[in-house]
Amino acid sequence: MESRSVEGEEEQRRVPLRERPEWSDVTPLPQNDGPNPVVPIQYTQDFAEVMDYFRAVYFADERSPRALALTAEAIQFNSGNYTVWHFRRLLLESLKVDLHTELKFVELMAAGNSKNYQMWHHRRWVAEKLGPEARNDELEFTKKILSIDAKHYHAWSHRQWVLQVLGGWEDELEYCSELLEEDIFNNSAWNQRYFVISRSPFFGGLTAMRESEVLYAIKAIIAHPENESSWRYLRGLYKGETTAWVNDPQVSSVCLKILKTKSNYLFALGTMLDLICFGYQPSEEMRDAIHALKTADMDKQDFDDARGEQNLNIARNICSILEHVDPIRTNYWIWRKSRLPLSA
Amino acid sequence: MGELATEKHVRYILSVEKRKDNFESVVMEHLRMSGAYWGLTALDLLGKLDTVDVDEAISWLLSCQHESGGFGGNVGHDPHILYTLSAVQVLALFDKMDVIDVDKVTNYIVNLQNEDGSFSGDMWGEVDTRFSYIAICCLSILHRLDKINVEKAVKYIISCKNMDGGFGCTPGGESHAGQIFCCVGALAITGSLDLVDKDLLGWWLCERQVKSGGLNGRPEKLPDVCYSWWVLSSLTMIDRVHWISKEKLIKFIIDCQDTENGGISDRPDDAVDIFHTFFGVAGLSLLEYPGVKPIDPAYALPVDVVNRIFFTK
Fold first, then answer.
1. What sections of A78-226 are H helices per DSSP?
2. How far is C-alpha B35 from the chain's CA centre?
3. Pick from A37, A47, A236: which is nearest to B26 by CB?
4. For an interface test with A, which of B19, B55, B220, B239 has the most A Cβ atoms less than 10 Å from its Cβ?
5. Mind listing the pLDDT tens digit for each residue in A199-220?
6. Is the pLDDT of residue A224 over 50?
């Protein structure tokens, strides 16, 4: 491509700009921010030189192919410099560059460091210019990044934008399933799944998707009851419909199932507490399962042994258990206990 | 537990400003304005702002301002809302707001508001709830919040609220502690905290504390000192900070210090930088660590500075 080291040349073989004939007519413009100490490291010397030449072409507003090549070099040194990216976009427009080649350039830069806002904003600008024909490129590009870092915030953000603006919703739920199969704890993939079922034009919205998604979430919960994401997803499926959530036997059943195993039950117990606070009536079996979680070091004061009593006692007992088994959040559970309604 | 190596951190912060010969200085070049804000605020929290040459700092800061009123991250860099807030925060620290034309800076920010109430970061149009916070915080410090459509700005932020009570960068974006700080901060400044599901969000935030005592920014991610700020400030603003274990978090931050050369890193034994040094000190401030001045959780400035802005004029 345009720049020498983009082609993979070794750093030490880089020819300084001052020795390149095509730059002989340009006087570099040093940064004016006070006295510069002698810079001992080759890397920063090269970087300083590139920036000095960049400033020269930037202030002269030189819209030339060599200026474009120079922005590529500057971006390689520091892909976070937004002014260089800005100028590059002006150059791409002025020089009427084929933007497909620009997609490749961004890909190359992303291979080095994909966690900077400037690069992603640039990518979106290019994709927006190309329009719907860029859809597959963009979906593939983000997929590639997510295959390396499945929680990459920028990549997910870009992907959501692509879906909403350029389309491509058709296979997205399947893609989420694939990622969750790889890592069921991937909160980003759960979020994307929620994004798809609540916003995709191909599904009838949250309510229409609830039945099948509840099954999906419950399966995930049973496999890993300690997974914060699947529990929150399950709760999110009843957004704005708390009564439906309290009354759905699938929700209380999965809690009971986990509680009976006596391991990894923090979220199950927390969910049970929420359910009771919203009016759920625990069965005898549920009461027994909760009672069985009472730990040896809980004394009479902590745990109300009066069986078959009001729901308030059960809610209190749940808080007491959680205070013990989730010590880092003890204060939260104490607060929950203090806030229990008088007749839960 | 060890103690905060205040003297060493002060020396480290002062040395970063001077250094131009290492990798950090290269990648910091374009965001030096934010670097200045992080360093100077940390110094102030540690009670050492008086070691800085104010006139030198202000004259450099002014050389980063553009005709549009916005500030660049350094001399010769394009203006951006990010660095405009940093510049205004630095001026607030030094009580030097009179050196700028407040209306000009205000106009720059006002022009970045979009039809849907959101804000762009600069003329190129990137939209993010980070920019909503920045615009609102900046205009509030300048006493010019009435110049934007606050109602629409708040509405946009609320459209980014998720079912877990958190907020993302755009509607539907995953909840992330950094974005949550921005959204909750903007809502706090505009007096709209009643729109936050405090208990639900508070629970999500306190779930961010992991066994080591540190906080992560999203489920199943590693803890990082910077979340001591993003998570803790959000919890403070919604009055739920007592839900986490303060002692354990203090220990985590203290463990991230370079006790030899100063500075704080993201995790124990990693390399220090100015960003994490600020967020570590700011986190300790919210945790009421002795010897660190209190910081305002919404404005991310020392409380006495915020009081001076709002109660002296």
1. 82-94, 99-112, 117-130, 135-148, 153-165, 172-182, 187-199, 206-223
2. 11
3. A47
4. B220
5. 999 999 999 999 999 999 999 9
6. yes
Selecting from B76, B172, B206 the residue whose C-beta is nearest the C-beta of A332 gives: B206
pTM given for the model: 0.93
ipTM of the complex: 0.94
Q: What is the pLDDT of residue A312?
A: 83
Instruction: Write the CB contacts of B21 (distance below 8 Å, at least 6 apart in sequence).
Output: A37, A38, A39, A40, A41, A44
Report the C-alpha gap between A236 and B161 in whole angstroms.
12
A113 — pLDDT class (breaks 50, 70, 90): confident
Q: Which residues of A touch B170 (CB under 8 A)?
A: 157, 160-161
Q: Which residues of A touch B162 (CB under 8 A)?
A: 191, 194
**Residues of A with active-site annotation:** 115
Closest CA to B246 of B288, B291, B295, B208: B288
Q: Is the pLDDT of residue A38 over 60?
A: no
User: pLDDT-based confidence at A10, cuts 50/70/90?
Assistant: very low
Concatenating the DSSP letter of every residue in A74-97 gives HHHH-TT-HHHHHHHHHHHHHTT-
Sign of CA dihedral B88, B90, B91, B93: positive
Residue B161 DSSP one-character state: B
- Comparing B15 with B168, the larger pLDDT belongs to B168
A101 or B17, greater pLDDT? A101
Please count the other Cβ atoms lying within 10 Å of the Cβ belonging to residue A117.
18
